[in-house]
UniProtKB/TrEMBL annotation:
Protein name (record): ABC transporter permease
CDD domains: TM_PBP2
Localization of this protein: Cell membrane
Family assignment from sequence similarity: Belongs to the binding-protein-dependent transport system permease family.
Domain ABC transmembrane type-1 span(s) in chain numbering: 101-314
Annotated coiled-coil segments of the chain: none
First-listed, main subcellular location of the protein, grouped into a coarse class: membrane
Gene3D superfamilies, per database record: MetI-like
Superkingdom, natural source: Bacteria
Keywords annotated in UniProt: Cell membrane, Membrane, Transmembrane, Transmembrane helix, Transport
Topology in the lipid bilayer: Multi-pass membrane protein
Residues that span the membrane, as ranges: 103-128, 140-164, 191-212, 249-275, 295-321
Length: 329
């Protein structure tokens, strides 16, 4: 019980610190919503009219910073996130985020989970047969792929599978504009075709890290005394590999996987930008470009909460799977 309360206390403290930093970062950025709105209206409105418009949208530049901070915390926790003052001027932020969130979860979430599962399995096999053919080839290949930039891999895939092949796979957006959205085979097929290239980009750049981490964990675990004891007892290689070695080697990867799941909600910003994919990452890019304070703050808050919740659940899962983590000291 003390372990759970201690983790919850760290969670609350970290969340408050992150929300506080989230409040000040946009205000330290160059430019202001007033300048961005003046540029979009081509200086046709007077400064007084622009300030009145921003005030109507919930942005009050002349209000005391302390009052703004308290209002901000209240709005973050109550879900009263206001409206956009960027390109989607006057649009409720809850609606904007609600439209982009499913696309990010579907694309980045699925690609991240598949990369983790595939990387873990390959890492277990490579570590188990250390020095074999699999261990000699794949780790070297994945060292290279894990270092490749998202945008470079995305552009390369577009060149090969979209440009050179005459549009064999779509290179942008989330579905064909000619297809009516709905739970129909045509729409689902269009969504899947548009997700292949961005999903493959995330998979290629992410799977290498999981392979190398799991391989190293597996090699370290195989040197433990309980593995030697299992061999001495005459257990089968399959049982030692999965129930003894892989199960314990998997535990250190949980923290990294929790972090990656938390970052899923932010989306791979560069991937969504390269493929014009309308997820939260692309939404954040547009919010920064348009100095949309309310939308930026909400997105940063969602990213922070996603990471913290994922890490907290990982701590609980690790404590449940490995009682040693609950031991004092």
């Amino acid at each position: 019980m003390r372990y759970v309360l201690r983790r919850l206390g760290f969670f609350v403290l970290t969340l408050w610190a992150a929300l506080t930093v989230n409040f000040f970062i946009p205000r330290f950025m160059p430019g202001s919503p007033l300048q961005a709105l003046r540029a979009r209206t081509f200086n046709k409105l007077s400064p007084a009219a622009l300030e009145q418009m921003l005030t109507a949208f919930g942005y009050k530049p002349d209000e005391n910073i302390g009052v703004q901070y308290l209002d901000y915390l209240g709005h973050m926790f109550t879900g009263n996130w206001g409206v956009s003052i960027g390109s989607a001027l006057g649009e409720p932020i809850t609606k904007i985020v609600g439209q982009a969130l499913p696309w990010t979860l579907g694309l980045v979430g699925v690609a991240t989970v598949l990369a983790f599962l595939a990387g873990s399995v390959i890492g277990v096999l490579a570590g188990w047969r250390r020095g074999g053919t699999l261990d000699s080839i794949l780790p070297s290949v994945f060292v290279v792929t894990s270092a490749l930039p998202y945008f470079w891999v995305g552009l390369l895939l577009i060149l090969v599978f979209s440009v050179w092949t005459g549009g064999w796979l779509p290179s942008d957006f989330n579905y064909d504009s000619s297809v009516q959205p709905g739970f129909t085979p045509e729409f689902i097929g269009s969504v899947l075709r548009h997700a292949i290239l961005p999903g493959l980009t995330i998979f290629i750049t992410a799977v290498g890290g999981w392979v190398l981490t799991m391989r190293n964990n597996m090699i370290t675990t195989l040197a433990e005394d309980y593995i030697r004891m299992g061999r001495a007892k005459g257990l089968t290689n399959r049982k030692i590999m999965y129930q003894y070695a892989a199960r314990n080697a998997f535990l250190p990867n949980l923290s990294g996987f929790a972090m990656s799941l938390g970052f899923v909600i932010s989306g791979a910003i560069l991937v969504e930008y390269v493929f014009n994919y309308p997820g939260l990452g692309y939404l954040l890019y547009n919010a920064v470009q348009n100095t949309d304070y309310p939308l930026m703050q909400v997105l940063f808050m969602l990213f922070t909460v996603a990471v913290l919740v994922s890490v907290l659940l990982c701590d609980f899962a690790t404590a449940w799977l490995d009682p040693r983590s609950r031991a004092k000291g």
